[in-house]
Amino acid sequence: MRPTIIPLVSVITPSFNQAQFLERTIQSVLAQDYPRIEYGIVDGGSTDGSVDLIQKYQSRLAWWVSEQDKGQTDAINKGFNRASGDIFAWINSDDTYNPGAVTAAVKYLMEYPDVAMVYADCNFIDEEDRVIGKFNAAQTDYRRLRQGYVHIPQQTMFFRAQYWRELGPLDPSFYFAMDYDLWTRIAAHASIKYFPGKNWANFRIHTASKTSLADERGWQEMLNVHYRDGGGFFSPIVAKYYLRKLIGPLWKWRIKGIKAWE
Fold first, then answer.
1. Of the options 3.40.47.10, 3.40.50.720, 3.90.550.10, 1.10.340.30, the CATH number for the domain spanning 9-260
2. What's the predicted TM-score (pTM) here?
């Protein structure tokens, strides 16, 4: 019998001036117990010491680059266009994986060959890696995604590379909702599944994060996807958008409160 060849997993980290957190991200990828990871870092020409950190680990990276780009979406596209894996994921330079995440995701996708993408639970953490909450992950699908019921922690997402090659790249006009756009495209063609009860990653909340600074833009971009794909005004996602506008100041207040208590 021929030995089973396990899938190659390509993990990309887009980064720009995130030296405060970048090393913890890199370490969380390199500490994974899965034996076939192709790890690439796409740095946007950082000037804060990030390049020195990347060079510290370059012998364990598949490749890295530091050059000016057009932002996070462009960096992810560049990374996946260079990737050669069977399964793709990206982990941002202020987030981290938990031990065993890659192994668990690959095992699930191997057991369920009809599933295009899998995701799991995720913690919110602060600047010092302290757990401050839990992401409200849940099963969703194409219909519910279109309605605004996302419930996917991007940090925990692993998907088959064939769907990137068939449906990618990320829309470069999106600054925030490029992942949501990709999920709707994938879910329109195959199933995506939530793996409950397993915490695969940590989503860092800090005052300079995109979640803190650009939540409004993110929802506007989600609405762009909704209307582009034929959605109407009287729909759950539009109602959620206006509700979010009302409670948005409370979220920002919460972020400031976390910072104040450090």
1. 3.90.550.10
2. 0.85
